[in-house]
Amino acid sequence: MDSPAIVISASPHVHSDRTSKRIMYDVVIALIPAFLVSLYVFGFNALIAISVTIFSCLLFEYLIQKYLMKTEVTITDGSALLTGILLAFNIPAGLPIWMIIVGSLVAIGIAKLSFGGLGFNVFNPALVGRVFLLVCFPVQMTLWPTAVENNTSIADAVSGATTLGIIKDGLQFGETMTEISAKIPSSVNMLLGITGGSIGEMSAIALLLGGLYLIFRKIISWHIPVMVLLTIGVMTGIFWFVDPEHYANPVIHLLSGGAILGAFYMATDLVTSPVTKKGMVIFAIGIGVITVVIRLFGAYPEGISFAILIMNAFVPLINRYFKPRRFGAKIKAKMI
Fold it and tell me: How far apart are CA 89 and CA 201, in angstroms?
């Protein structure tokens, strides 16, 4: 009589009472403070954008899984919900609804389900959707609503510039950082989120509160967010120390743009980040270095989205090089 077949799932084989669904909803909970700040700063436009991305991501995942892939529908596991929130956090409030829907389709249909669904995607789905929209619709994706002034209107927002955008434009026109400093928000406003930018990237304190919650809940490790921010801070600090009139100080770089949002919520994606501590450190340093290079010398004032996606591509190589020793492997004896 033939013995029954043994089915072994893909590694890693780690026992835990924490399900992927529970992890996803913990991240959603961590994003609540930033969500509330976005409603205060951008009002109805933020609420509409977030609602559309969530609904679109859930709908596309349902339709593709049920009618194209003909597999089990997993819209209740929280992954599509989280992708929708993160995509919304990476776009400006007031972006046309049809563009939001297109970005959601790219995030779910191309970046996630075309690779096989949750656990198989190589790149962070929300960032793929965001970068696709930025490349295809650069004008609309860089029309930033003015903070607070327009938070009760559902009409087209008054457009402004982000802190990093003001700095890059000013430097290109020959202004010094002393002159530019009078045009950008204060560190307190950047900490609280009273500044222009993507829906969920403005309030550093709200994002940090959520990030600390994730670390406390052991959803993420501190290695990636701390090393990403430390790398950005050290590199920009060196440039600022050498020439403070042509480079912004590291506090501005850390509090503005998507540095904190990317470091805590997207670089730490369990599927697209390394599994070992050493791998996480290398991965995070790479993100920080690429982000700074793009910010200081690239065409875009912000670069963390591109940096995370680039390092996502290196994750299989990093995991291979820093893979833990197999159980039972021999250790070479050292000469005494």
Answer: 6
User: Sign of the C-alpha dihedral, residues 271, 273, 278, 281?
Assistant: negative
Structure token pair of residue 164: 């990093």
- pLDDT score of 203 more than 70: yes
The model's pTM is: 0.89
User: Left if phi > 0, otherwise alpha if psi is -120 to 50, otherwise beta: which for 264?
Assistant: alpha
Contacts of 269 (CB under 8 A, 6+ apart): 124
How many CB atoms lie under 10 A from the CB of residue 105?
A: 18
At residue 178, the 3 state secondary structure works out as helix
Instruction: Note whether 284 and 296 are within 8 A (CB).
Output: no
Phi, psi at residue 9, to the nearest 5°? -75, 165
Higher-scoring residue by pLDDT: 60, 331: 60
Can you give the three-state secondary structure of 19-87, one letter per residue? CHHHHHHHHHHHCHHHHHHHHHHHCHHHHHHHHHHHHHHHHHHHHHHHHHCCCCCCCCCCHHHHHHHHH
Predicted confidence (pLDDT) per residue in 77-86, tens digit: 999 999 999 9
pLDDT value for 196? 78
Pair of tokens at residue 216: 């406390």
Residue type, 116: G
Nearest by Cα to 264 from 202, 207, 180, 328: 207
pLDDT in tens, 97-141: 999 999 999 999 999 999 998 889 999 999 999 999 999 999 999
Handedness of CA 169, 171, 176, 181 (dihedral sign): positive
Residue type (1 letter), 160: G
The two structure tokens encoding residue 305: 């989205």
